[in-house]
Amino acid sequence: MRKGLRQKMNFEILTLFPEMLGPFFELSIIGKAAEKGLVSVHLTDIRDYTLDKHRKVDDAPYGGGYGMVMACQPAVDCIRAVKSRLSGSVRTVYMSPQGKVLTHEKAKELSGYDNLIIFCGHYEGVDERVIELEIDEEISIGDYVLTGGELPAAVLTDCVCRLIDGVLPCSECYEDESIASGMLEYPQYTKPRVYEGLEVPEVLISGHHANIVKWKREKSLERTAAKRPDLLAKVEENAKREN
């Protein structure tokens, strides 16, 4: 993991469909962060590394079964080629429903690396030897299956990118929000003060800072208890440990 002053964090996305992700990384917060030199995102087509004249990257699975499996040669050669041109700390992740579910804590851990290589699987998965040889960890974005790893890769990159110093205006932007703080965020309001008969809570326009902080805390607790009691139980458990 990186030490000392933070340098630009680099994301390497290895995929069979780079055209799916290009526009996503060029826009919004990630695009602006790249313009500022805070992050860089490179898309690599795994097919460019196949030795097959037809650019084939998959084959039928041994032992039978439905669908095709991504083969070792193009996947391993692609990962190794990308790794060979990187400097600093590197973490290689395979987006897989078999991995541990992505959390804020995991995103924070990954933001500490200089380079994050994200391998996107497709078809029925990748030859197990690719994972054994080149993958540091598998990560899932939920207990469901998608047609490929591109969307999960975009989710992971976005989640990690916003934790990098300077990407968001200040650390409070991500430290006090839902999940990151350990609880769900309080209700948010903006103008107009009244909309279709619904009014902004009086405390928020009172100018009384202490009361506003207290209200936000109470609403955060209420929401967490109602929508995610599992999070509240975790907060209470951590508080007991600290005491």
List keywords for this structure.
single chain; 243 residues; Alpha/beta knot; Trp Operon Repressor, Chain A; 5-stranded parallel sheet; elongated
Kindly describe this structure.
The mean pLDDT is 91. This protein folds into two domains: 9-161, SPOUT methyltransferase, trefoil knot domain (Alpha/beta knot, 3-Layer(aba) Sandwich); 176-242, tRNA(m1g37)methyltransferase, domain 2 (Trp Operon Repressor, Chain A). Helices cover 37% and strands 18% of the residues. The protein starts with 8 loop residues before the first strand and ends with a helix. It contains nine helices and nine strands. The strands form three sheets. A five-stranded parallel beta sheet has the order 2-1-6-5-7, with helices on both faces. By secondary structure, it is an alpha/beta fold.
- What fold name stands as the CATH topology of the largest domain? Alpha/beta knot
Alpha-beta classification: alpha/beta
Number of helical runs?
9
- Give the overall average pLDDT: 91
The shape, in one word, is: elongated
Q: CATH H level of the largest domain: which superfamily?
A: SPOUT methyltransferase, trefoil knot domain
Quaternary form: single chain
Number of domains: 2
Strand count, sense and barrel status of the largest sheet are:
5 strands, parallel
Biggest sheet: strands side by side, in what order? 2-1-6-5-7
Question: What percentage of amino acids are in beta strands?
Answer: 15-25%
CATH second-level architecture of the largest domain: 3-Layer(aba) Sandwich
Q: In which range does the helix fraction lie?
A: 25-40%
Q: At the first level of CATH, what is the class of the largest domain?
A: Alpha Beta
Distance between the termini: 31 Å
Ranges where pLDDT stays below 50 over 5 or more residues in a row are: none
